[in-house]
Design goal:
Chain B: InterPro entries: BP-dep_ABC_trans_perm, MetI-like, MetI-like_sf. Chain B: Pfam families: BPD_transp_1. The structure holds 3 protein chains of 3 kinds. Chain A is built from 13 helices and no strands. Chain A is mainly α. In chain A, helix 4 packs antiparallel against helix 10, helix 5 crosses helix 8 and helix 10 runs antiparallel to helix 13. By secondary structure, chain B is an all-alpha fold. Chain B has 14 helices and no strands. The radius of gyration of chain B is 24 Å and the shape is globular. By secondary structure, chain C is of the alpha/beta class. Chain C contains 19 helices and 13 strands. Chain C has a 5-stranded mixed beta sheet with strand order 2-1-3-12-6, with helices on both faces. In chain C, strands 8-9-7-10 form a 4-stranded mixed beta sheet. In chain C, helix 9 crosses helix 18 and helix 18 packs antiparallel against helix 19. Classes of the chains: A mainly alpha, B mainly alpha, C alpha/beta. Chains in contact: A-B, A-C, B-C. Chains A and B meet through helix 1, helix 2, helix 4, helix 5 and helix 6 of A and helix 1, helix 4, helix 5, helix 6 and helix 7 of B.
């Protein structure tokens, strides 16, 4: 990030000019970004202390902290948080392991590796909603491919419903998410692997380090920034998961797949309580920003040292 | 001995690769096969993995209004068009405003540069659900609901920070000497950006455009909340709404799914070089 | 400074593009556009609804109706999110019985009490007016008078050795056991017990068949009393025993129709529209000619007290949106859609709300309208008096979600039936006090 520059030092007025130019250049984007995000976030904050109904959506009926208190006391809220954390940890964890594995596989350059890399792009580019619809059809209790496959292989005696048990439904939604997102991580990591200097690796090999040692002590530390980027993006995405649940299970069975985003949707747009919906979404924003801050600190440390 | 080990390890690698490819292509195959099956074959138990009577009728029904009485046909092509308009406009605006901002962040000596960069990264992480309620209220007041413009504006909330982030990475990699030469020749900053920096960073622009388009094409939540008629409804919403008739209209669903996936998948495959370089830029940047 | 002037031009350009995009698609002068939101599930098919729209547009060149459909489960949320726009995204909306109180309270619906003449009032079933009436004011035209009916596959029953459909749920279980033992179908009965309103409908039918009630006379929840707990425990037991299709926990009505139409269930509970599609439609069904209807059974204890049947009333109405700029034109369409003539011509999946059609000669004419009506019309006359309505309260949706959760929690063994229902009842009381 340090701006090592070959340019001659400029006079103070030139710097001022540059700043003024910079502001002009940044202005349109900043107006758009902060207009669309900062103002709404503040608005959400105000709204979260009210009892505003969807049918008359202008902030009204100040109720103090009661929206927040109601959630903190509600079992449904904590269950949704727990499910969201479970979804995030399991899906991102599995995706990272599989993604790293696939990246290493590509990096080993077996015959046909380029085809594999191209193939990875497909699941990643399939829209999330299509992905959801597809997996819902795969899990279909009466005609789905999962039943068909297991039945044809003789692993089950008769077709069975897959999405009727809360925990299993959640895990199957995670599987659908994994299919969609592993390629993203694999592609990022294989791109990063390709840029790593080979000399260290070769030197270590000459010194007698085995493949595992070379991976653990040389490649993995070098991959750290790339892994972190992939983690940041995926964690934040997984934490806000909504689309795929909306399509596959609609929150069921028995609210077993209601995540925090889904709960916010229900509060705001099914039950019409914009006020408590705002309180929830403000809590999500806080969670996410804390997470993001932690990540950004992690991300920038290695570079600051380098 | 050594050769033998090599053969074994290649075999293992190939085996692993076959597994990964199976995991990737099996669901895709099921999607495509479902879309060219007749309904009767689709409801067979166990499934006809290879349709005995493959047909393109589902595609005809969904794409050509008038060939089928189905309601799917009438709305689907309209939502497809909406998706193109929204994703295309979002991409365009992101490229224009994002280039300016990305350039300023990459090149100009600004005192608040780091703070700004952090906050843009932070904004990128704000979940849509946190913005949706107030945006909904504002859009309702301004009578913007149910128009493509509201989607274009709100999509900028996540697409623009992303575009700025990527573009500034690419601009940083443009050799500074090129710019300095132009600046010394009396070219303005804006002129330098357009005549010198952008052409050199063209691959980066293509990458950014692709990613932004895919992000906007994929978006569902804002579209679900902000649109209610086919005046602005996008493809993901149309597909989600057909899940009610799921058990019955499965062929239409899967056909719609293939059609909705085709533009992003084709774009990504055709420009895969840029996708891969974009991902590595993002990763290297950190 | 050259750069900043160019830069300004660019900004202006961006603003222009935005403004243009915003103005695009505004309708110019011409016929008044009436936008209608309907559903594509139960009742007439979208294709039939489109045909009615075309008729109306041809007869009324100064009005142009545009109709759109969503699934039932998306309908409520779509309406409430669309209502905040000015002018609203829709001029006419399809409203379920259970939403009228909520929508009327929110001010979404046009009060049409004074637009309905005495003659119309007279000729439509009194129970139909109950659908669209809130606190004595009428907020729309009733359209779909529906209830869940009991369907059975006569061929499967015969093969199992039964010559009549079950009259009680206990009898159904007995017949189902035989059907299952003989391997005729794996799971004899399919239900719509997904986490959706559909589950409430089935539960209410069973609840009243067991002598239970949704709410008591004071409006306090009564679904969690002894009768309600028995019903829910029975539901769980039939799944455990393999009599009810375990996938029912993820089914809505269309899944039930699908399973039944493929010959994979001997019994099903569904709305009227399934008769035509399952019993007569070769394209939709593998069991054409085998499908019969009979009264929805009740539990033995109630049958002994003389109760013949109990089911759920699932009626809907079409209403004009209060903020619509074209209320009169919209009302014209609603009147056309619910008119006697149109309802008679499209009676395959929906029966007329006009009571005179069910008497004397008109009844014979109604029965002869299409291949389905000889069966469905008499069945309607017999079944509809046993249909029970769900509470008409503004907080219904949220209360119902709590009850849906309770049913699912019991069906998926998260909680006992009593515990789940008590929790839902507590939520209901809490909503009431708000």
């Amino acid at each position: 990030m340090a701006q090592a520059t070959l340019r001659p030092p400029k006079s103070y007025s030139l710097l001022q000019y540059e700043i003024r130019e910079g502001i002009l250049f940044l202005l349109p984007a900043m107006i758009l970004i902060f207009g669309i995000t900062l103002f709404p976030i503040l608005f959400t904050f105000v709204l979260s202390f009210t009892d505003t109904p969807l049918s008359n959506p202008s902030p009204q009926n100040f109720v103090g902290l009661s929206n927040y208190l109601a959630f903190l006391r509600s079992a449904q809220f904590w269950q949704a948080i727990w499910r969201t954390v479970y979804f995030t940890v399991v899906s991102v964890g599995v995706e990272l392991l599989l993604g790293l594995g696939i990246a290493l596989l590509i990096h080993a350059r077996p015959p046909g590796w380029a085809f594999l890399r191209t193939s990875l792009i497909i699941p990643w580019a399939v829209p999330t909603i299509v992905n959801g619809a597809l997996w819902r059809w795969i899990y279909n209790a009466d005609y789905g491919a999962l039943n068909g496959l297991l039945y044809s292989l003789g692993l089950i005696e008769k077709y069975r419903p897959w999405l009727t048990e809360p925990m299993r439904a959640l895990n199957l939604v995670i599987l659908a998410d994994i299919w969609h997102s592993v390629p993203f991580i694999a592609l990022i990591l294989q791109a990063a692997l390709a840029t790593l200097p080979l000399e260290l690796d070769e030197a270590a090999a000459v010194d007698g380090a085995n493949a595992w040692q070379r991976f653990w002590f040389i490649r993995l530390p070098l991959l750290r920034p790339a892994i972190l980027v992939a983690l940041v993006i995926r964690t934040v995405e997984a934490f806000r998961v909504f689309d795929i649940i909306y399509v596959i299970t609609q929150g069921g069975p028995a609210f077993g797949t209601v995540t925090i985003s889904y709960l916010t949707y229900l509060e705001s747009f099914s039950y019409g309580h914009l006020g408590s919906g705002a309180a929830l979404s403000f809590l999500i924003t806080l969670f996410t920003l804390v997470m993001a801050l932690a990540y950004i600190r992690l991300l920038y440390r290695p570079e600051a040292q380098g | 001995m050594k050769r033998w080990r090599r053969v074994v390890s290649t075999a293992i690698l190939l085996g692993l690769m076959a597994l990964v490819l199976l995991f990737i292509y099996a669901p895709i195959a099921w999607l495509v096969l479902s879309s060219i099956s007749t309904r009767a074959e689709l409801l067979a138990v166990p499934p006809h993995w290879i349709p005995e009577h493959p047909t393109l009728k589902n595609y005809r029904d969904i794409l050509i209004p008038g060939t089928a009485v189905s309601e799917v046909a009438r709305t689907f092509s309209v939502t497809l068009r909406n998706s193109f308009i929204v994703a295309g406009s979002t991409t365009l605006i992101c490229l224009v405003t994002g280039s300016l901002a990305g350039y300023a962040l990459a090149r100009l000596r600004l005192p608040f540069r780091n703070a700004l960069f952090m906050s843009i990264l932070g904004v990128r992480m704000v979940p849509e659900i946190s913005l949706v309620v107030p945006l909904y209220i504002i859009a309702a007041r301004l009578a913007l609901l149910n128009k493509p413009i509201i989607l274009i504006i709100t999509y900028l909330s996540f697409a623009l920070p992303f575009a700025i982030w990527m573009l500034s990475t690419f601009f940083e990699s443009v050799p500074r000497e090129l710019e300095d030469a132009a600046l010394i020749d009396g070219s303005s900053r804006l002129g330098t950006l357009f005549r010198v920096v952008l052409p050199v960073a063209a691959p980066g622009i293509v990458s950014t455009a692709l990613f932004t388009f895919l992000l906007a094409w994929d978006e569902f939540f804002f579209a679900l909340i902000f649109t209610s008629t086919i005046a602005a409804k996008t493809v993901p919403v149309a597909i989600a709404e057909f899940t009610g008739r799921y058990a019955v209209d499965i062929t239409a669903m899967m056909t719609g799914g293939v059609l909705a996936a085709l533009p992003p998948v084709l774009l990504a495959l055709v420009f895969q070089r840029y996708i891969v370089s974009g991902l590595s830029a993002g990763a290297v940047k950190g | 400074m050259r750069s900043s002037s160019r830069f300004l031009m660019l900004m202006v350009l961006v603003a222009l593009v935005l403004a243009l995009a915003g103005c695009g698609g505004q309708a110019a002068t011409g016929p008044k556009v009436v936008k209608v939101l309907a559903m594509q599930q139960a009742g007439p098919t979208p294709e039939e609804m489109n045909a009615i729209v075309n008729e109306f547009n041809q007869k009324n060149p100064n009005i142009k109706v545009e109709i759109e459909y969503v699934s039932y489960d998306a309908l409520h949320d779509k309406i409430v999110t669309a209502m905040a726009t000015t002018p609203p995204s829709y001029d006419v909306i399809l409203v379920d019985d259970i939403w009228y109180a909520e929508f009327a309270k929110a001010g979404y619906l046009w009060d049409v009490t004074d637009k309905i003449d005495a003659q119309t009032k007279e000729k439509v079933f009194a129970t139909a007016w109950d659908i669209t009436t809130v606190n004595g004011r009428i907020y729309g035209m009733p359209w779909l008078l529906d209830a869940k009916y009991f369907y059975y596959n006569e061929k499967i029953l015969k093969e199992a050795g039964f010559d009549h459909p079950p009259a009680t749920w206990e009898e159904l279980v007995e017949q189902a056991r035989v059907i299952k033992e003989k391997g005729l179908v794996e799971y004899p009965i399919a239900w719509s017990w997904a986490q959706a309103e559909a589950a409430i409908c089935d539960f209410v039918a069973l609840l009243y068949g067991n002598g239970g009630r949704f709410v008591d006379d004071q409006g306090k929840p009564a679904f969690n009393d002894e009768k309600g707990v028995q019903v829910l425990e029975w539901m769980v037991k039939t799944i455990d025993e393999g009599i009810s299709n375990p996938a029912s926990v993820s089914y809505v009505e269309e899944d039930v129709r699908n399973v039944f139409s493929q010959g994979k269930a001997a019994f099903a509970l569904n709305w009227l529209y399934m008769y035509d599609l399952a019993a007569l439609n070769e394209q939709e069904s593998q069991v054409v000619g085998q499908v019969k209807m009979s009264l929805v059974p009740v539990f033995q204890s109630m049958a002994q007290q003389g109760l013949k049947s109990a089911t759920i009333n699932g009626s809907m109405g079409f209403s004009v949106v209060d903020k619509s700029p074209n209320r009169e034109a919209a009302w014209e369409y609603v009147k056309y859609l619910t008119s006697e003539d149109v309802q008679k011509r499209y009676a395959a999946h929906l029966l007329p709300i006009w009571s005179a059609n069910y008497e004397g000669e008109a009844l014979e004419a109604l029965k002869a309208l299409n291949p389905a009506t000889p069966v469905t019309v008499p069945m309607f006359k017999e079944q509809f008096p046993y249909a029970h309505v769900r509470p008409k309260v503004p907080y219904y949706l949220e209360g119902s979600k709590a009850l849906q959760l309770a049913l699912q929690e019991a069906l998926t063994k998260q909680k006992t039936a009593a515990q789940a229902l008590n929790d839902a009842a507590a939520k209901w009381v809490e909503l009431q006090s708000k």
